[in-house]
Design a protein that fits this description.
alpha/beta; 169 residues; single chain; 21% strand
């Protein structure tokens, strides 16, 4: 939950299953379902922001950064327009980061996406940014702590087993 009450869902997708939009819609609906207490007004439903960082191409779009919001389609009388920004969804395709012209990307966005894509290749100058340095320190700690590393390795094995089962059927 963000400071302003916005519900956040951040995912890193390592495998393109071909259904990122459907899965994201389902996850956002689950977040929304639990956000309203009995007796509350519908206007008190918090905003939901879903950010999916994908390590494989997910869309046919050229840029690396896409935002999806609820839209009204043109009906011949009215134009296309945003219906609501209460449930926003961002898809970031790391494979398209380098091909996206820099004028379309914020510097900090690029730095963070490069960090997520390959933290070992982060230029030293980026580590002068306190938040990036803190993230690198935390990653280094997590990588070196045997117990944390064991939990991580077990999760990777579990995901590999799941993916192996999907591909052999």
């Amino acid at each position: 939950v963000a400071d302003d009450g916005t519900l956040l869902n951040v995912e890193i997708q390592c495998k393109n299953e071909g259904n990122v939009e459907d899965r994201a819609s389902f996850y956002k609906a689950k977040l929304r379902q639990g956000s309203l207490k009995e007796g509350q007004s519908y206007s008190s439903i918090p905003d939901i922001v879903s950010i999916w960082i994908c390590t494989e191409p997910e869309t046919n779009r050229k840029g690396c950064y896409h935002e999806i919001v609820d839209m009204y389609k043109s009906n011949g009388i009215d134009p296309i327009e945003i219906a609501s920004e209460k449930m926003r969804h961002f898809i970031i395709e790391l494979t398209k980061l380098e091909a996206t012209p820099k004028r379309f990307l914020n510097d900090m966005f690029s730095i963070w996406m490069k960090f997520i894509k390959d933290p070992a290749s982060i230029p030293e100058e980026f580590l002068k940014i306190p938040e990036v340095k803190e993230a690198m320190d935390e990653l280094t700690y997590m990588s070196s702590d045997p117990e944390t590393r064991a939990v991580y390795d077990a999760r990777v094995k579990e995901l590999n087993d799941i993916y192996s089962g999907m591909t052999t059927k």
